[in-house]
Write a structure and sequence with these properties.
Blueprint (H helix, E strand, L loop, with lengths): L3 E3 L6 E3 L8 H10 L5 E11 L6 E7 L2 E2 L1 H4 L6 E10 L8 H10 L24 H6 L12 H7 L9 E7 L3 E8 L2 H16 L15 E2 L3 H35 L11 E4 L1 E8 L2 E8 L1 E3 L5 E5 L6 E6 L8 E3 L8 H7 L2 H7 L4 E2 L16 H6 L5 E14 L1
Parallel strand pairs: 2-3, 17-18
Antiparallel strand pairs: 1-2, 3-4, 4-12, 5-9, 6-8, 6-10, 7-8, 7-18, 11-12, 13-16, 14-15, 15-18
Length: 397
């Protein structure tokens, strides 16, 4: 489908889904965003659903302003994937040992490394900016600087919720490695600090929703937020880079005889801000649960822990601000999923996948998510499918 346009207070709302299928609370959030004085455009992806302040699955283009709650608390959250030389025939019948090895190498949930992970310990990793990156931590908000030790220990860790590490097989039988994570606790604390600052600023007092509080250009608060935002986005990028290095290390050891080779890594944020130019204007584009899909850009659009994922290339549709969905998107809240589904349902819906099947991950059950195939079908003018993957191992926190 192409987009459907519905009226908004200051800009039209372009939706790559049927508005009738969007929850009322999410529609209300979209209408609220369209009232912001700084708004220049709003594009809504097919995985749209209710979020904090702004919906997940929305692309918000503003002039001289950015909304920290619209970016979200997991700054820089995103995906990485790499195709390997392994094939499905190289995989053992029992994948439980492989899953265990991955869980031993990459801390999940609230876990962290006992010793910091050094990127220089991995052959071929780009480490040029590593020392400068950590030096710049001294310039982030005073309120979170005491978290340095934890930020260092959590670098190269997964976290919980919808974050995952997967081993997948594509339709031609090639094995892929894939992971989903962000800026961990340090990103969350930076985000919460700045959201609190924004909500107290005088220009935000008349907004329809206090979670839409913004920073505006040429103010010290905006400068401080942008500094911390871009640092956290870099943290998320390094975090995924190190996790992928750890994951490759596991695969090399487990498949020593096959001598696996890894292709070029694909990596993309889906909770972030970028400065981009549209219609002759320099805009701050916030993608909250959306990926950049400029012409030729590689992207990753995952489904749920039992349904598979897509590798795509962007078509550069400027009406969507060169964006696409970040995943399938939830169709019910975590609490609703826990009420609706049981561990038996989880076992049924993840049959054939080596993964946790206990009550702690019932809220991540495939039935709690929209159909990934339908979501892909709704954005044929945004991306072209390169590969369809199906997970055989899924590690969650």
């Amino acid at each position: 489908m192409s987009y459907v346009e519905i009226p908004g207070a200051r800009v039209p709302i372009r939706m790559w889904t049927d508005p009738a299928t969007v929850e009322d609370v999410a529609l209300r959030q979209l209408q609220n965003v369209a009232t912001l004085p700084w708004i220049e455009g709003l594009a809504v992806m097919p995985d749209v659903h209710y979020g904090k302040g702004a919906t997940v699955g929305s692309v918000i283009a503003m002039r001289d302003a950015v909304c920290p709650a619209a970016v979200g608390v997991d700054i820089g959250c995103g995906m990485s994937a790499v195709k390997t030389s392994l094939t499905a025939n190289d995989l053992p019948g029992d994948l439980s040992r492989l899953r265990t090895r991955i869980e031993q190498a990459i801390p999940v949930g609230r876990g962290m490394h006992d010793d910091p992970v050094e990127p220089r310990g991995f052959h071929g990793l780009a480490t040029a900016g590593w020392e400068d990156f950590w030096k710049r931590f001294d310039g982030v908000a005073d309120a979170v600087r005491f978290r340095r030790e934890r930020a260092v220990a959590q670098m190269g860790t997964l976290g919980g919720g919808n974050h995952f590490v997967e081993v997948c097989v594509d339709e031609s039988g090639s094995v892929w490695l894939m992971l989903h994570s962000g800026s961990r606790n340090i990103g969350k604390e930076l985000a919460e600090h700045h959201i609190g600052v924004a909500q107290k600023l005088p220009h935000n007092q008349g907004l329809v929703d206090r979670d839409l509080a913004v920073f505006v250009a040429d103010t010290p608060q905006m400068a401080a937020y942008r500094n911390d935002l871009f640092w956290a986005q870099e943290y998320a990028k390094y975090n995924r880079m190190l996790m992928m290095a750890l994951l490759k290390d596991v695969v090399r050891k487990e498949f020593k005889k096959a001598k696996p080779v890894f292709e070029q890594e694909i990596s993309c944020h889906h909770n972030y801000v970028a400065q981009e130019r549209y219609d002759g204007m320099d805009l701050l584009v916030t993608r909250k649960g959306a990926i950049r899909a400029g012409s030729g850009d590689y992207g990753i659009i995952p489904g749920s822990m039992g349904t598979g994922s897509y590798i795509v290339r962007g078509l550069g549709n400027e009406l969507a601000f060169n964006s696409a969905s970040h995943g399938a998107g939830r169709r019910m809240s975590r609490n609703a999923a826990k009420r609706r589904f049981s561990t038996k349902d989880l076992e049924e819906q993840t049959r054939g996948v080596e993964c946790r099947k206990d009550s702690g991950v019932v809220d991540e059950i495939p039935g709690a998510y929209k159909s990934i195939d339908q979501v892909i079908d709704q954005q044929q003018d945004l991306v072209r499918v390169v590969a369809k993957l199906k997970q055989v191992v899924c590690v969650k926190g």
